[in-house]
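Intended use. Records such as the Carbohydrate ABC transporter membrane protein 1, CUT1 family entry shown here are meant for training and evaluating sequence-to-structure methods. They are not intended to support clinical decisions.
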Amino acid sequence: MPAPRTTAAVPPPAPPRAPVPPVPPAAPAARRPRRRTPFRSRLGPYLLLVPAVAAIAVGLGYPLARQFVISFQEYGLAQQFGRPAEWVGLQNYVTLLTDPYVWTVIARSIAFCLLNAGLTMAIGIALAVLMTKVGRAARVTLQVGMLLAWGTPVLATMTVWQWLFDSQYGVVNWLLAEPLGMGSMRFHSWLIEPLSFYGVATVIVVWMSVPFVAFTVYAGLLQVPEECMEAAQLDGANAWQRLWSLAIPMVKPVLFVVALLQVIWDLRVFTQIHVLQRAGAPTRETHLLGTYIYSLAKEFSMAGAMATIMLVITLGLTVFYIRRMLREEQL
């Protein structure tokens, strides 16, 4: 007989689940009210600037305002002792700007300024690059030498340079006459002719200005990432290409600021020119803006007008450089 068929037990069906009620959307979080900065906190940084601004206004603003007012008056030695100053308007400016000699001094000063600033920048950048390449001993020696040249007082430096270029006992004349065989230079006077006068003045001004440029540019070159220089070297760029195409563009803001300061300083140069003039140079043929304003010292109104013209020229060069620097940063 066949075996009886067994039937597997079937589990009872599960009871139906109760429907899940939909979850209501979460209410948007309440926006926290923006906390307003107290007025006192916003005013704090400006209050910290008040002492510096006040000192600049008293030490610089008042003399500039006084100079500007005097330039529109007839003001001389008599007014120093109580005589009232007469208001002449633009007469002082007309007198100066219609004088061909004034334009000669202005052109001479701008040419001297641009030449000295260019030489100073070129030599300073070269020394900054040199300091990044040499060893520690040579770098420290170079830095100490530049610090001594930069830190020596101007009059002490001028005394040494006058001795070097002295017509009778100067070392420069002896070197040119004896070792180099230029006998005509034995008793040559460097200060009589305007061209050689400005050559000596250029040497002195550049000598005293190069350390500032060299140290500033050297500090900027130290911030150039080594990884970029190594990557450029691996790509086949030589030392000149790495410097000109990579390092110089990275420190371009530093170069613009230093060049602007050099232009301002070289345009206002006074001490070096005045000391060389007193050593025997013809003053009228060697005047720059600073020494020419000093020569007008007895006529305060004319000196004030000439100083204002010099200030306008300086501001014009400054605006030109600042606009160019901002344009470079936007590229």
